[in-house]
Amino acid sequence: MTDGGSPENVAEQLSAAYAHASGLLWSEQAVAEALARITSLAADVIPESSGSGISLLDSAGQRTTSAATDPLVAEADALQYRLEQGPCLTAWNDHLLIRVDNVARDPRWSQWASRATELGIASVLSAPLVADGDTLGAVKVYSSRPHAYTEVSEDLLRRFAELISILLLQLQTAQSTQQFSDNLKDALQSRETIAFARGILMVREQVDADRAYLRLIELAGQRRMPIRAVAAEIVASTARNAEAGHGSF
User: How far apart, in Å, are the Cα atoms of 76 and each of 60, 113, 136?
Assistant: First the structure.
């Protein structure tokens, strides 16, 4: 850990971290790597910090710690989740930057504070991660020294929180876009399959397009299957017959 450096140097390092992350945003693994880089930078440039990490919700909706720079961070966070109290949860739930100057003497989270003190945590700084009006979690730094953090520290952590929020929002956007793309692809594939099957029925049964589609609906009802599934069966069986050299539909 360093003494933090000048605001200009910190801004340059944040810009570099974002530039590095910008090329990696389109997968969850890549964003996780970018977040690890950012929390490492936070622990390094915010003076007196022993470690840093991010509290988020996992896919099951449970609170979890990501990109922790030290096992102590994950352990202190796990205590908060288990006890349902602590500075990071307050920052997350109340959308506020929380600073704890002396964990051992702070009355706000007595159960967590006593356990955290045993772990050697004396000061905490935590900021909410806010994107598009939603609070996604919180980022925090821990220190083994009381009264470690200042208003300058608060400003630095806010900058990190803004960057992390941007990355998380872009990940959500990427995932939503991919989901939309996958759904659209499935819909188009189903549409193409149904059109192909309808064409097969038009040739096989010598009917027009409307009657062929009605025949698909009839078959789907008889087999109690979705139309796209019946269409896929017709296409597949036709392909098998063609490969076998039967020469007919």
Answer: 21, 10, 19
